[in-house]
Amino acid sequence: MGTSPSALFRQILTQVPRGTPMPTAWLQKRGFNAKQVARLAKEGWLERLGHGVYILPGDQLDRDASVARLAELMPGLHVAGKTALAWRGIRHNLAARERLILWGDKAATLPTWFTSFFAADYQATHLFDPGLDADVGLTPLPGGRPDLPVSTPERALLELLSDVGKGQELEEARHLVESARTLRLPVLDQLLSHLKRIKVARLAHMLAEELELPWVDVARKHSERLGGGSRWVSTTRSGERLNLKRPT
After folding, report:
1. By residue range, what is the domain housing residue 91?
2. Domain's final residue, options 14, 33, 55
3. Radius of gyration (Cα) for the chain, nearest Å?
4. What phi, psi does 164 have (nearest 5°)?
5. I want to staple 219 with a disulfide (CB 3.0 to 4.6 A). Which of 33, 37, 202, 204 is the partner?
């Protein structure tokens, strides 16, 4: 006689930390077909969060477990920009409600089961050329989940600068850049070597020079490498004018 779905599910409960979302694909890898998953939900072993995603009944979704699960489902997804800086201890103002900044490889919409619980923005902006290994500048937090990729300060800072003018205020970015004085120069140099966005390179150089940061020479080198016209001019969504000069 075969093992019933409920008996099999009891056996894997130790693999399911509290607050962890369980997509159907995750359950199928553990021996459940679609009909059995539906039966488990009907019998009260699982609670449906959204299309194809479940949680243990009565659980509250855990933020880090949820982002880690998204990283399994969405190519290249990681905690990025201002959120990554904040998680690594570099912050300016504390928001009343944290809004997660997530980046990934492909254009996509975050699932409703996630956005119903967590305020988040997702984008698929490609800052670097294909020569950069995908995992450069992406590591778990010390003592954090090993399956949750978070941008290092060097990568997060470049992602932050990319967002300037797209909802990110320059003044806040300036304060955050000023706090990032202890960047690892070899890592920053490697990332900037593969950077392909003139705006980001010029912003990095402008702020490093203005704030007299120790990595100003690295930023200058790569701003010169990317070249472009004598000025890069744009107006942000808030009406602020960005006027970024080429290094001379």
Report:
1. 63-245
2. 55
3. 22
4. -60, 130
5. 204
